Amino acid sequence: MNTIWHGNGTVESTGQEKGESLWIQKQFRYADQGAKEPVKRPVLQEDITTDVAVIGAGLAGVLTAYMLQEQGFSVVLVDYKTVGSGMTKNTTAKISSQHNLIYHKLLTYKGEERAWEYASANQKAIEKFEEIISRQGIDCDFQILPSYIYTLDNVLKIEQEVQAARKVGISAVLAKETTLPFQVKAAVRFDHQAQFHPLKFLDAVAKQLTVYEHTHVTEVRDDGTVVTEQGRINAKSIVITTHYPFINTPGFYFFRMHQERQYVIALEGEDIDKKAGLGGMYLDADPQGYSFRNFKNYLLLGGAGHRTGKSNPPDAYVKLEEAAGKWYPKANVVYTWSNQDCMTPDSIPYIGRYSANTPNIYVATGFNKWGMTSSMVSAMIISDMIAGRKNEFQKVFYPRRLMLSGSKELLKDAAVVTINLLSEHLRITHDRLRDIGPGEAGTVLKDGMKIGVYRDKYDKYYFVTTKCPHLGCSLEWNKNELTWDCPCHGSRFDYRGNLISNPAMRDVFDACQRKKK
């Protein structure tokens, strides 16, 4: 089951399809349920009426629908693909209120009250997971473990985070020793955090809901109408949990977020068995560092992240395999995958009303790589708002808040958008068709059109338009995954031009063939 990655972006597989996470493997997802196949859910094919329509059947959408249904609301959940087929299936699945070194930052820029709201909401989210799993008897490999943020060089920032976390009510501990395969300078430890199998949990909760899959939403109207290709949903309230909001205005979330990719490999073998587990979850405070967690007899090693659409991204899987070879030389790489996260300028999600002009439309997005607890926080806050109850934590997540601490990130994002729009409109290209080697890609100008070209190892060429259908930015090649990615807002397409993830809503077709037609 080994997968061998090469520096030029090609891959040799000896047992599993490239990019499939450990969570979606049948032996892990269904073994405890008699190895059954996924539930087949219907496509919406008629007009229906409900109290609440939730769009997006990842963890945030499923939990929101579940909590609203528990309170007596009629709820319909729809997804363009299937339940859990988006970002939820690719998470590292840590349920934690320890979101990197965030509490010192929150105290500095938001003040103690908002920092307390953030900490308390995420701590309550952990408790809510425990409560649901226990009450319903869900077998999802749920484990209570400590969580660590470690540093190899800067003890001061760890000490500051310990003090900040304690100030907002978290029992943080300064640790100097860990179970990692290398020495750290210091770490901040949060106790009573958790990890689990995200899809086992999601399957158990979703089976209690009314869900329509393969149902493509094309329009959301202010009057509560959700228009799909097959039928309409008339709802009193609408919740958008589609990872990245697909409605550009009002709300303007495309101006206030970018997306980042993160890569993961799963290891097994003598070295992993010999360690007998880390006894906790770990993340480097350095963005270029690594994350660690166990699942059964596997070790999940993550890292090598970059902004989605980054020109010349790092050889992510090569970097991870080199690190694994150094620390676990007798382990094998058995699964490889990646994920994508919406990043807000101030590192706080957007949870609440979509905009001031849409009082009955709600949003949950911008989870900043902490989608498990953020999904539960979203469900708690939005279900309270729809029920007419005040949630004591909602102010810190208010989508239209001032973000003085994120002004630099906003300017950086604006610069990326400007440069890429200019590149596309000026038809700036970098390559000649004959110079693109097997297993490589480039951009060329052909018949007055800028197109992206991928040449496979059999010398077959694949052409796409490089203009992202979302807002027109210029797509960049991701050699790690053989995809065309948008650096502005994170839409992704395979080398054939098929849409992988939003906010774009359609494919980028073969530019040359389209022109001929």
Q: Which helices and strands appear, and what pairs or packs with what?
A:
Layout: E1 3-5, E2 11-13, H1 26-29, E3 48-55, H2 59-70, E4 75-78, E5 94-95, H3 103-109, H4 112-136, E6 143-151, H5 155-167, E7 172-175, E8 186-195, H6 198-206, E9 211-212, E10 217-220, E11 225-228, E12 232-240, E13 258-269, H7 270-275, E14 281-284, E15 290-295, E16 298-307, H8 316-327, E17 331-343, E18 350-353, E19 361-365, H9 371-386, H10 407-425, E20 440-446, E21 449-455, E22 461-465, E23 476-478, E24 483-485, E25 492-494, E26 499-501, H11 511-516
Parallel strand pairs: 3-4, 3-12, 4-9, 6-14, 12-19
Antiparallel strand pairs: 1-2, 5-8, 6-8, 7-8, 10-11, 11-12, 13-16, 13-17, 14-15, 15-16, 18-19, 20-21, 21-22, 23-24, 24-25, 25-26
Please sum up the structure shown:
It contains eleven helices and 26 strands. The chain is an alpha+beta fold and 517 residues long. The strands form five sheets. Strands 5, 6, 7, 8, 13, 14, 15, 16 and 17 form a nine-stranded mixed beta sheet that branches. Strands 3, 4, 9, 10, 11, 12, 18 and 19 form an eight-stranded mixed beta sheet that branches. It has a four-stranded antiparallel beta sheet with strand order 23-24-25-26, with no helix packed on it.
Sum up the structure in keywords.
517 residues, alpha+beta, Rieske Iron-sulfur Protein, nine-stranded mixed β-sheet, eight-stranded mixed β-sheet, 26 strands, 25% helix, 28% strand
